[in-house]
Amino acid sequence: MADNKAKSTKPANKTPPRSPSDPTKDRAAKRLSCDSNSSHEGAMAGEISALEEAFRKFAIHGDTRATGKEMHGKNWSKLCKDCQVIDGKNVTVTDVDIVFSKIKGKSSRTITFEQFKEALQELSKKRFKEKSDEEAIQEIYKLIEGKAPIISGVTKAISSPTVSRLTDTSKFTGSHKERFDPSGKGKGRAGREDLVDASGYCIIVEYVVVLYKALICKFHTPFMKN
């Protein structure tokens, strides 16, 4: 009897066949439903991806320790400026700073990507007043997606009368004037020290040598005879 009970309970240990409600089939159904979404929703997903890429590029700009997951206020302002979110009319630098302070936490100095999108939503209402809320947020996304920080060129010298007076070599006097040639190029050591130029032809030196030889020839012979 014990053997019969063991045999009868053995099939119960086998893995039962998967039912139609199996989780893997549910995931496949969800994936198929996602693939069958409209092309508009697919475009929306692409825009968000490009937006996040731009967010990370600006978030790490100028900070070697940044991870790209959070953005500081100065980088937020640079993003709005470089991507022309700030137009000087509807959106100003002050508006950008106010929105950043409003979105970030009280004790935080940075914003996350989700907070970044909230901030853009706030600015989109001011930047594109004539459009609906949905159209405005898409327009402001287009300004940012795919963009990267603009690297400024070499800083130009400040042009002012004082600076010009200090850098114009033609107005130098005294020993300072002797340190530059007429074109404004520095002479180097020759402008600081009196150097003897022995590389050229000097008629005076040749005259002294000839005179010396003549005197030697005139007085040398009688001296030798004596």
TrEMBL record:
One of its GO terms (molecular function) is tubulin binding. It is found in: Cytoplasm. The keyword Cytoplasm applies. GO terms for cellular component: cytoplasm. It holds the Pfam family p25-alpha. The keyword Endoplasmic reticulum does not apply. Residues 23-33, 175-191 have a biased composition (Basic and acidic residues). Residues 1-43, 168-191 are annotated as: Disordered. One of its GO terms (biological process) is microtubule polymerization. Keywords: Cytoplasm. Belongs to the TPPP family. This is Tubulin polymerization promoting protein. It comes from Gallus gallus.
